[in-house]
Fold:
Amino acid sequence: MGLLDRLSGLLGLKKKEVHVLCLGLDNSGKTTIINKLKPSNAQSQDIVPTIGFSIEKFKSSSLSFTVFDMSGQERYRNLWEHYYKEGQAIIFVIDSSDSLRMVVAKEELNTLLNHPDIKHRRIPILFFANKMDLRNAVTSVKVSQLLCLENIKDKPWHICASDAIKGEGLQEGVDWLQDQIQAVKT
Amino acid sequence: MAATSSLQADGDKGKSSEASSKWLNAVSDPMTNIHTFPACMALADLHGDGEYELVVGDLGPDGRQPRLKVLKGTVLRESPLPALPAAAVTFLMESHEPQTPAVAIASGPCVYMYKNLKPYFKFSLPPLPVNPLEQDVWNQAKEDRIDPLTLKEMLEGIREKAEVPLSVQSLRFLQVELSEMEAFVNQHKSKSIRRQTVITTMTTLKKNLADEDAVSCLVLGTESKELLVLDPKAFTILAKMSLPSVPVFLEVSGQFEVEFRLAAACRNGSVYMLRRDSKRPKYCIELSAQPVGLVLVHKVLVVGSNQDSLHGFTHKGKKLWTVQMPAAILAMNLLEQHSRGLQAVMAGLANREVRIYQDKALLNIIHTPEAVTSLCFGRFGREDNTLIMTTQGGGLIMKILKRTAVFGEGGGEADPLLSQPVKLNVPRKTRIYVDQTLREREAGTAMHRTFQADLYLLRLRAARAYVQALESSLSPVSVTAQEPLKLHAVVQGLGPTFKLTLHLQNTSTARPILGLVVCFLYNEVLYALPRAFFKVPLLVPGLNYPLETFVKSLSDKGISDIIKVLVLREGQSTPLLSAHINMPMSEGLAAA
Structure:
């Protein structure tokens, strides 16, 4: 990796391609978050429950992301592991107003982290404590407590409170993700 | 929710690895205050947004404040109910709209329908026919032709003879006091008498499609031993079936317009099977005990009995299997996992376990902090496999079945007794024992002889002492056929004054004893008795007579002596029986 590459990256001439997996339970707001990260003219108006998965692209200041937007429905969750190899980063979305299924999210996160394709790779994980605008939502600190995020020692992680409909909190998360990916690269 | 999470952590540690590997603890809240039973719990998508809600007909903490509670996620909403609920079900009334199911709560003689959680319709059971004789009598009272007393007499006559039972009003009249009768008749005579029945159980039956979103009919079981099938829209009675006893649990399979089978567990300890077009039960299963739950699993009817066992029956009433439970069954319900096609029966037991059985095989045991009184499995919130339990203390426990969990046979642990053979507790013998046996082998003859001689002497001495005791009537129990008596004396107290109680009992079967006297013999220097000689009342056989006197210790030196008690017959000088009382040391002022 030369100085030239980084310079061109900074200038936005040639953006690096990064594959990101977007995971989370159904109805947590994965597709809405991805949609909001796309440029405003490319955003779709209606979001429907994802069937299987879809591939989306968006750009940050210096990286170009290819996102596997997976369906979070129970019957599609076994598809997730087929894409673990390609993922260079993970976005894990949590519905912070759904305290009932927090244990399910924790369980899915644990299976994800213990999967052989993920376990020994130091890939960054970005958590979105989504739906912060809802009245019965819990704080991102509480979410990280409930999911026992402090137990993740060998991977860089970050949790952001977000409201995917307004787009609040998304930029902060993506900036962190970009920094982490570049730190890994160099 | 803070308390919840800490509780969850505690629960995890105590759980066996088996249980924790299959279930996730979503909620464990001991303070929810839901007091209900399995028939009063239902899960449905009430708002049509894919979020399933739990509908509970709650009895209230003391069974006196009935409430309709709806749980969405972890948020509980409630509204008061007019009477205690007997059952709660959710069903689809019509198929044309974006469907939101209606909630039906059966309580008393009515079924209250709620749509979008708003009262929508009230169905009342048709009144039962009234006894014409009773009607006549009340009509006479209305025209003031008979007075309340004759009215009462006539009603009592009807109650004893007639086959149709009396109405509530007449029964109430028979209860009131003489003074209130006049007022009661004046108040009630203008009202027409009615006979109402009460719903005991309720379930749903698909009308003509077996789909999830098909229209269902309500099936009601009433206290008047009838089953009614209601039309989902018009709430007219589509079918009426009669049973020999009061139904308490109902299970239905099939569709109303095609073919259906109804199983009704009744209070007389029988389960009756009904088919389409049969007005009376076709088959009957007689259980040896009262049924506590009824669940239909695939084609097998599982009945829980109050003798702590589950029985499996076919639709024709043939017994397939029996499983014994370790404790009493408090609640039963069906566990249906659509994704794996699993149907099993859950049983909440009194020993704080929930056991899951598929036929005879134990699949899983869940340990709960409190005994579970109602349970329900299905889609709740957005999660397909949620198990909702309420405990005896009103707590709420929710568990989510893991996506990866598979129930296999052998989920239950093996019998602990089989794995651990019991060691016999045989005592060990030491050197001393071996030496002793050697000695016995050498000098066996001498030992035998000496022992026999000693035994002769022992018998002689025992007989001598016995004769002596008989002669002086020393024994406190007289066994002679004429005077069966028993005496024992008790001394109470510390001080210079003691309370001496004699317990005298006639031990004959049916012969009272008359004319007995009690006499105390004592050292007059040491003790003072107010009366040392008194008569005994007539002794009724079997009763224990406590006769008490006060003994005062006179000695100031702390000397104790024996007091003798003699029970004599009047006119005879030989005592019948006697007792010796060792008086305790006086600890009173006199002694000090």
